[in-house]
Amino acid sequence: MYNPKSLEAEEFICHEEILDTLDYAEKNKNNIELVEKILEKAKLKKGLSHREASVLLACELEDKNAEIFALAEQIKKDFYGNRIVLFAPLYLSNYCVNGCVYCPYHFKNKHIPRKKLSQEDIKNEVIALQDMGHKRLAIEAGEDPVNNPIEYILESINTIYNIKHKNGAIRRVNVNIAATTVENYRKLHQAGIGTYILFQETYHKESYEKLHPTGPKHNYKWHTEAMDRAMQGGIDDVGLGVLYGLESYRYEFAGLLMHAEHLEAVHGVGPHTISVPRIKKADDIDPETFDNGIDDDTFAKIVACIRIAVPYTGMIVSTRETEECRKRILKLGISQISGGSKTSVGGYFNPMPDSDDSAQFDVSDRRPLDDVIRWLMEMGYVPSFCTACYRSGRTGDRFMEICKQQQIHNFCHPNALMTLKEYLEDYASDQTKKVGYELINKEVELLEDNNIKLTVKDNLCKIEDGLRDFVF
Ligand code: SAM
Questions:
Q1: Which SS3 state, helix, strand or coil, does residue 430 take?
Q2: Between 307 and which of 72, 276, 335, 371 could a Cys-Cys bridge form, CB atoms 3.0 to 4.6 Å apart?
Q3: How far is it, in rounded angstroms, from Cα 337 to Cα 135?
Q4: Confidence at 404, pLDDT banded by 50, 70, 90
């Protein structure tokens, strides 16, 4: 029986409720009256239920779809302004005991080189990332209790936070590792992680079990209830996502929103972020062998509908997507992107093509970070390296409260401008600097609160004088 408040995976992600939702959406996809009613509710910018959002996702009415996209753009602007937060993934180890059929790290893959970074290797990787200008990382590792135990992950986080090289600093480490125990989540929390990210891959239990035939990840219940354990362990910010291409996207969409509703119902706070990965070609993986691939138009519609359904949840797109695709969905709802990414173990310090042989998947957007930053600014976005919320204790429900009141701009915008200035001073090419200084001057003048404007101006001068790390 469907129960969003239950702690049982099969009750809060209830298969029958998803099927009913899909049926309801299919029957009503061209029901103008209902679609209009849902859009009216959506315009209140307080979100939609999985049922309502599923109707919008299924809707085929041309002018209503245009309204859906326009509303997503508006909500994006209202909640996130023109800021885009930057991060990079850091692959610690590709040892893995699972048998995930879409991932080249599956244990049966005997020809992919297995690599695990030592603490010395991590220093090299992090210095290379700092020298690009990154301040925020997402660490990634396969699941392997012997090679990648929690102690290794904790030691690595500690190493990362303690590397001070020139003006560089990693100020927020998000973690994407396999589902684990409350006790281990507590340890991650104590290590000062930002968001704990875990992709569900698919919410469809039967498919999930087939796609994860062996290893601890086979256990749907353990995986699906991971976010509840993470929150019990004290982690405030969790990141959801499904791997599009594995199952029907409408099923996944409904499941994802039910998961968000469940977290809100039980813990009083929904997910901090939602990622939208699509399956990619990788060593011994051919995406064509999966039946549920989605085209770019469908992908854009999913992003727009997520934006409308959960307005205050950040949305992440990685370099799995091309420059063109990223450009299209940025305005529909994306608030964070990765840039200059390597998905191989050790790929930042040793960027030679042969170091990519341990990569998890092919990246489509291969531009260096400097190009990505300039590209964003030329489109009118303010790239942000901000990590202030988490360092100032604005996490979980405290963050959501500010966000729901649309007050987050007063913090985020000044922080974005100051961290962008740090980036320009320390790492940008001359061409990027030129575009950036102009943008910052313009954006500072647009700040509405006079006190904030004066403080930002003052801090920007101090950054020029070599001072760093100002936080609102
Ligand atoms: N081992 C951890 C786990 O089980 O969640 C970490 C996950 S892995 C390093 C990060 C994510 O990459 C996976 O959750 C999966 O969704 C995604 N991934 C795996 N293979 C992929 C592929 N071929 N193309 C695109 N994304 C892929």
A1: helix
A2: 72
A3: 13
A4: confident
Residue whose CB lies within 8 A of the most ligand 1 atoms, among 112, 174, 176, 283, for a mutation test: 176
Residue 213 sits in the same domain as residue 360: yes
What is the C-alpha radius of gyration for the chain, rounded to an integer number of angstroms? 21
Look at residues 319, 274, 312, 340 and name the one whose alpha carbon lies nearest to residue 412.
312
Based on the fold, state whether residues 107 and 44 are members of the same structural domain: no
Q: Does 82 lie in the same domain as 66?
A: no
Q: Helix and strand tally (H, E) in the chain?
A: 20, 9
Q: Is 470 in the pocket of ligand 1 (CB under 6 A)?
A: no
Q: Domain check: are 38 and 123 in the same one?
A: no
| 134-171 per-position pLDDT tens digit | 999 999 999 999 999 999 999 999 999 999 999 999 99
Task: Give the side-chain half-sphere CA count within 13 A for 307.
Answer: 30
Read off the pTM. 0.97
* Residue 451 belongs to some domain of the structure: no
Ligand 1 mean position, distance from CA 272 (Å): 19
Separation CA 99–CA 24 (nearest Å):
35
Ligand 1 neighbourhood includes 282 CB (under 6 angstroms)? yes
CA angle 151, 145, 275 (to 5 degrees): 85
| HSE-up (13 A, CA, CB side) for residue 289 | 9
Residue 442 lies in a domain: no
Domain-located, residue 401: no
Determine, yes or no, domain membership for 417: no
One domain for residues 62 and 160 = no
> How far apart are the CA of 178 and the centre of ligand 1, in A?
10
